[in-house]
Amino acid sequence: MSGPRKPQRIIPIQPLFASDPKVYPRSVSGLFQRWRWVFAWLTQIVFYGLCWLPWNGRQAVLFDLDARRFYVFDFVLWPQDIIYLAVLLVLSALALFLFTTVAGRVWCGYTCPQTVYTEIFLWIEQRIEGDRPRRMKLDAAPWSAHKIGLKTAKHSTWLVLSLWTGFTFVGYFTPIRDLAAATMTFSLSGWETFWVLFYGAATYGNAGFMREQMCKYICPYAQFQFVMFDPDTLIVAYDEARGEPRGKRSKKAVPAEQGLGDCIDCSICVQVCPTGIDIRDGLQLECIGCAACIDACDQVMDQMDYPRGLIRYSTENALKNKSSRATIIGRSLRPRVLIYSAVFLSMLVATVWSLALRVPLKLDIERDRAALATETTEGLIENAFRLQVINASEQPRTFAITVGGVAGIHLPQNLELTVPAAASGSVTAQVRLEPGAVRAGSHPIRFTVVDTVDPQVAVTEETRFWMP
Questions:
Q1: Using omega within 30 degrees of 0 as the cis cutoff, is the peptide bond preceding 245 cis?
Q2: Domain tally for the chain?
Q3: I want to staple 418 with a disulfide (CB 3.0 to 4.6 A). Which of 145, 196, 313, 398 is the partner?
Q4: What does pTM read for this prediction?
């Protein structure tokens, strides 16, 4: 008989990744926090208000996908204007490169939607649940009627704001007044309902729960932004030479006599950080450049009667060489910044110039595919073309159509087309030419479309006439 079995040792399963602890940002006030709220107000006034602004009897900004028209104040953009979308994307990328090279993640800290909505959601959370210690205590406490009430109030407010955000976003693609009327009568289409709920859920999840996780792990900009940094890029920096060695002390103590720097190791800079990092550890990917730690540290320095600026906006070179503010500003005009600025300004000026000279008229020409050429009863050679005229203005126009490019080429009668405001119209044009007027083959000709009232509104397009 075999002996008794040895008890098996149970090996605990180790997770591959340790979950990050929840970040409870402490509220802070100061210069940079006020600027963050200024930008939060500005961006949200534009976002929530612009779609309600009337303009020429319609919504000022509307991306009408069904009609394939984009309305941006006085501009009516068609699919043929997609070049402007491409230019806008290039300008946005150049602006991001330029601002990042000069001032680091200033976009993330002040105007990124993730940062702005997280700040708004945190403000709601603080008003309902209290500041950092009370929120931490509430989450650690067992469930009770008081806790359920506070959590319900917070999440209900978040949900209302999130759904309103989703509704507003969809209002830029469906006229928002029509969308509001359909919402009140519970007659939203399936797609409208889906997108309102989808963007509402995205806002609720990203700003309410994911928060700093979006900035640390998901946002692609956070992963490659260091490529655009250099030693003269402005960043939120801790002056280690001044602050170390850190340590606690009384207000009356003289740091030099105790062998200490100006940092009193209060960790308030860590408590106010929305991503939960310690800026004293140096530049980190998770830092979004919001400067909350600067405001917090300045308040502590004021209380200790120490000079402000232990944590401040500076550059690696400035900290290393103890450079003045004038030197920092002067180094901002380095070659890569000047190149980015020149390219950005050149494209911006060219785009504005193009829009200013843009003619609110477009012409597309298609040849009749049934026959290249036919002979009329008068013995003339005729080619048929279908002309689609797009009136990109917001007033009806009547256009006169003429043809040229080859001697003797003509239309059998005066051809005019009336096109409603911000609409398109089409007409068939029979182009005729005497036999033998040109050699056999294909020949370039020009169609010209001119507004009968305003000759400045005109466009010319080329096509080809086939002579058998």
A1: yes
A2: 3
A3: 398
A4: 0.81
